[in-house]
C-alpha cells in the first residue's frame, strides 16, 4: 500500500449520509465486512483494522433519498492487500447472493456494488505497479471482463472474515459538473492527471493509477444535491507534511477557491460543491 502513505497525498475517510443508520450498519458489517470503531444514535465510524476510520455513515434528521442525477459520490473504493483477499470477497458475495458488477482495469481488478441508499462501492486489488504500462505520462487503463475463476482460485485458501486489516481507502470517484475547472482545482491540491477517459479524468499524487476519479457521466452542468439528500457529506485528503498542506491552501486561494477552518480542520469545496477536509498525518 505504498501509494497510501508518505510521500503521497491520498484519501482516507469518506463520510456518507444515509436514510437508515441501522440498515446501513448491518449492510456494511455483514456484506462489506467493516468493524464498528465508534457509534452514536445517529452516526457510526467504520474500520478495517480497529484503529483507522475509513467510512463514516450518518443519519441526519431530515434526510431524504435521491431520485435525480447530481454531482457527488460515484463510488468510494476499498483497496485490499492482495488478490487472494479479493478472491475471498468474491466467494463471499457469491455464497450470499450479493449482486455485483466487476471490471478488469489492467492496473487492478475490481468488484462493484451499491449500499441500501444507492451509494457506490468498489472493492479492488491492485496488480503490481511494475506491471502497469505508462506512455507519454499516462498509465494504461481499461474496463474489461474479469477472470472470475482465476480470482476465486487465488482466494481458495483465504477465509473471508470481513475486510482484512491492511485494507485502505484506495480512491474516491466523484460525479462533477465539468472537467476543466475541476482539473485545475485538484491540480492545486497536488494531484495530476494520469489517465484521461471519455467524459472522465483519473488523477493521482505520484504515479498511482488514481487517488481521485472524476466524471461528467451524469451530464455536463449537473447540479449539486441539496444538503439533506443521501450521499457524500465529505471526504478527507491526507497530505504528507504541513508544508505540502500549506502549499495546497495557497494554491487554492490563488485560483480564488475558499478555504475555511472547521473544528481546527481546513476544508474546501471543488467546483461541484464536493466537500474536502485537508489534514496531515
From TrEMBL:
It holds the Pfam family Glyoxalase. Residues 10-126 form the VOC domain. It comes from the Bacteria. This is Catechol 2,3-dioxygenase. Its cofactor is Fe(2+). Belongs to the extradiol ring-cleavage dioxygenase family. Coiled coil: none annotated. InterPro entries: Glyas_Bleomycin-R_OHBP_Dase, Glyas_Fos-R_dOase_dom, VOC_core, Xdiol_ring_cleave_dOase_1/2. One of its GO terms (molecular function) is dioxygenase activity. Keywords: Aromatic hydrocarbons catabolism, Dioxygenase, Iron, Metal-binding, Oxidoreductase.
Amino acid at each position: 500500500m505504498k501509494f497510501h502513505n508518505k510521500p503521497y497525498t491520498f484519501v482516507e475517510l469518506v463520510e456518507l449520509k444515509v436514510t437508515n443508520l441501522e440498515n446501513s450498519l448491518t449492510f456494511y458489517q455483514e456484506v462489506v465486512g467493516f468493524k464498528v470503531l465508534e457509534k452514536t444514535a445517529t452516526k457510526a465510524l467504520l474500520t478495517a483494522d480497529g484503529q483507522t476510520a475509513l467510512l463514516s455513515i450518518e443519519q441526519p434528521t431530515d434526510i431524504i433519498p435521491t431520485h435525480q442525477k447530481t454531482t457527488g459520490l460515484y463510488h468510494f473504493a476499498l483497496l485490499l492487500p492482495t488478490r487472494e483477499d479479493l478472491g475471498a470477497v468474491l466467494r463471499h458475495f457469491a455464497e450470499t447472493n450479493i449482486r455485483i458488477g466487476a471490471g478488469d482495469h489492467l492496473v487492478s481488478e475490481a468488484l462493484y456494488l451499491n449500499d441500501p441508499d444507492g451509494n457506490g462501492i468498489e472493492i479492488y486489488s491492485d496488480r503490481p505497479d511494475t506491471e502497469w504500462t505508462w506512455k507519454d505520462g499516462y498509465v494504461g487503463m481499461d474496463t474489461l471482463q474479469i477472470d472470475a475463476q482465476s480470482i476465486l482460485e487465488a482466494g481458495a485458501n483465504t477465509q473471508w472474515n470481513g475486510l482484512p486489516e491492511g485494507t485502505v481507502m484506495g480512491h474516491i470517484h466523484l460525479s462533477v459538473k465539468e472537467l476543466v475547472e475541476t482539473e485545475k482545482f485538484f491540480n492545486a491540491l497536488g494531484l495530476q492527471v494520469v489517465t484521461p477517459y471519455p467524459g472522465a479524468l483519473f488523477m493521482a499524487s505520484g504515479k498511482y493509477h488514481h487517488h481521485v476519479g472524476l466524471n461528467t457521466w451524469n451530464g455536463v452542468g449537473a447540479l449539486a444535491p441539496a444538503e439533506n439528500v443521501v450521499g457524500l457529506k465529505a471526504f478527507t485528503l491526507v497530505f504528507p507534511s504541513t508544508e505540502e498542506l500549506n502549499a495546497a491552501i495557497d494554491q487554492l486561494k490563488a485560483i480564488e477557491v475558499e478555504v475555511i477552518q472547521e473544528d481546527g480542520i481546513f476544508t474546501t469545496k471543488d467546483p461541484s460543491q464536493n466537500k474536502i477536509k485537508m489534514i496531515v498525518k
